[in-house]
Design goal:
alpha/beta, globular, 7 helices
Length: about 200
């Protein structure tokens, strides 16, 4: 792929969403009396595997006795994970080409409504906005935050897949303040999520 001539915006555009990728979707497990809101790229497959695949209806979303939980992730690390997944084997190997690709991706995101963007890189805040959340679990410390909830052992899926590509993108963003600040601006609402300790590449908010 030559990012200077072959920037395919269709990769970033909204696809036909499965239910577990739609905004506001939540898994319900009545045995453990919990609603778990699903955010793509935040261990969503592992949550579904662990708690079961039953999605809450609109009525069930309002059951007061249920605990409401969500997994939240450092916004830059989630962006990196989403780009790595969407571009898969199409990531340039040359660093300057990868920087150019990231610049084009950010320019597209800066000028496109979020509802037209693939859910893997939409802001996390869109999946939980105006919803009562009792517990925010940190992706970076998920096992530490998970077990006090008294839930079944978390069944990790896709853990550490293609770490080399993730590390390459993350390193570029860590070293390029301009790219980093643009991402932080795009995901400004995610940095307003309460009770979350930033554990990723950007330091403290």
């Amino acid at each position: 792929m030559d990012p200077s001539t072959d920037f395919d915006i269709k990769i970033l555009q909204k696809k036909n969403e499965s239910r577990n990728h739609s905004e506001g979707a939540a898994i319900i497990n009545e045995e453990y009396e919990i609603l778990f809101y699903i955010i793509p790229k935040n261990a969503s497959s592992s949550i579904i595997e662990t708690l079961g695949p039953r999605y809450a209806s609109k009525r069930e979303l309002n059951i007061s006795r249920l605990r409401r939980a969500v997994i939240y992730r450092d916004p830059i690390q989630r962006f990196v994970s989403g780009i790595k997944q969407l571009y898969s084997n199409n990531l340039p190997q040359i660093e300057s080409d990868l920087i150019l690709l990231l610049d084009k991706i950010l320019s597209f995101l800066e000028n496109t409504p979020w509802e037209e963007i693939d859910t893997h890189i939409r802001p996390q805040s869109r999946f939980i906005q105006n919803r009562k959340i009792d517990q925010i679990l940190r992706f970076e410390h998920l096992e530490e935050d998970w077990y006090p909830l008294g839930l079944p052992d978390l069944l990790w899926l896709h853990q550490g897949k293609d770490r080399e590509a993730f590390d390459r993108i993350e390193q570029i963003i860590r070293n390029d303040e301009s790219l980093r600040l643009r991402i932080m601006s795009l995901y400004a609402e995610d940095y307003k999520i309460p009770n979350y300790e930033d554990c990723g590449v950007v330091g403290t908010h």
